[in-house]
Design brief:
- 36% of the residues lie in helices and 21% in strands.
- It has 377 residues and is α/β, with parallel strands linked by helices.
- The chain folds into two domains: 93 residues, Urease, subunit C, domain 1 (Roll), CATH 2.30.40; 274 residues, TIM Barrel, CATH 3.20.20.
- Strands 7-8-9-10-11-12-13-14 form an eight-stranded parallel sheet.
- β10, α6 and β11 form a beta-alpha-beta unit.
- The longest helix is centred in the first third of the chain and has 17 residues.
- The protein is globular and about 65 Å long.
- Bound molecules: zinc ion (ZN).
- The site of zinc ion (ZN) has 4 residues, from loops.
- The site of zinc ion has 4 residues, from loops.
Length: 377
């Protein structure tokens, strides 16, 4: 089944192709161009001057969880500082939940994101922190998300010895989880894992054929960015506190700097230095970091709006970072772009241009969403 979409007021493709019409055939984009030269299609949809862009690519979420951290959030807003230790609360609730309860949470949030234009979601393990619970987290994630990351090294479980736990993560746990995931990630931060521990986990994962990602430089400057660049990680995520050396290292590498502004706002940190990264030539992605502790939002539009209004990114840079940038952070060229052959993931705004995403902050602008060639919203 093919569908010709016409009447596109502004088409953002993130590629060389342009036009005011496109054809979706099956789950792929088949053609992009001017409506006057459009090929025949089985159906025709007129979007009446609305802006069309690729669906958001959310390259960083933690959706396999149970429990609630409303009280912790409230306390934080009343002045209590954020620490990595809050993760343990979610670990206890996640271990106690049934498979069906966990799957329902993932499904709910993927659906919530889809309603807001997110058509591609990465999610992570990391609230199991033992072999059995990390394996089932990976299995449930793989059933509902597009990409899955092993984050056994999210936190040392309370009461465990850090070095013994690192040996478990890079040994038995990695062996059990690796067949279910494409990526491995480490929380390289004070209160989580130091440079040597993080490196030990990532090197073992690399030897297993997994791609690498790093949580780093969230709560202060530290070795996360340096480690990510050294090991050729696809992405280093947070990047809230960067030294000049970190910015330069990212600019001269293929490692994407994935910024998570909703997390920085929700933990009352500074916002990341997006302008310095972009001006130096680094590749920047934006993602939600949707999780129950430090960033409980699935709204990529909120991240884009924040990036423009408060991080001095242009609308075009922010939209690119939340689509093609996310795809690059996941080393994919078939999503986050609109071109013949790409996955037909389209976000139609109830607005004539992407500028409205920042010009009308907080207004729900998603008109319709196509995912893998199907009208989903
Ligand atoms: Zn995260």
């Amino acid at each position: 089944m093919s569908v010709l979409i016409t009447g596109i007021g502004e088409l953002t493709t993130n590629t060389e192709v342009s036009g005011d019409a496109l054809v979706v055939d099956g789950d792929r984009v088949a053609w992009v161009g001017d409506s006057g030269s459009a090929p025949a299609a089985d159906e025709r949809v007129d979007v009446e001057g609305r802006a069309v862009l690729p669906g958001w690519v959310d390259s960083h979420t933690h959706l396999v969880f149970a429990g609630d951290r409303t009280a912790e959030f409230g306390a934080r807003m009343a002045g209590k500082p954020y620490t990595a230790g809050g993760i343990a609360v979610t670990v206890n609730a996640t271990r106690a939940a049934s498979d069906e309860e966990l799957a329902a949470v993932v499904r709910k949030h993927v659906a919530e994101a889809l309603r807001q234009g997110t058509t591609f979601v990465e999610t992570k393990t990391g609230y199991g922190l033992n072999v059995a619970d990390e394996v089932r987290s990976a299995r449930i994630a793989a059933e509902h998300a597009d990409e899955v990351t092993f984050l056994g090294a999210h936190l040392v479980p309370p009461g465990a010895d850090a070095d013994e736990y690192v040996d478990l993560v890079r040994g038995e746990m990695l062996d059990a989880v690796a067949p279910l995931v494409r990526w491995a990630d480490v929380f390289c931060e004070k209160g989580a894992f130091d440079y040597d521990q993080s490196k030990a986990v990532l090197v073992a994962a690399q030897q297993k054929g997994l791609g690498l990602r790093v949580h780093g430089n969230q709560l202060g400057e530290g070795p996360g960015v340096r480690l990510a660049v050294e090991l050729g990680a696809a992405s280093v995520d947070h990047c809230t506190y960067l030294s000049t050396e970190d910015v330069d290292a990212l600019a001269s590498s293929d490692t994407v700097a994935t910024l998570l502004p909703a997390c920085d706002l929700s933990t009352r940190q500074s916002l990341p230095p997006a302008r310095a990264l972009l001006d130096a030539g680094a590749t920047v992605a934006l993602a939600s970091n949707c999780n129950p502790g430090s960033s409980y939002t699935s709204s990529m539009a909120f991240c884009v709006t924040t990036a423009v209004l408060q991080m001095r990114m242009t609308v075009e840079e922010a939209v690119w970072a939340a689509t093609a940038g996310g795809a690059q952070a996941l080393r994919r060229d078939d999503v986050g772009v609109i071109r013949p052959g790409a996955r037909a993931d389209l976000h139609v705004l109830d607005a004539p241009s992407i500028t409205h995403l920042a010009y009308r902050p907080g207004v729900p602008l998603t008109h319709s969403v196509w995912r893998q060639g199907q009208r989903a919203i």
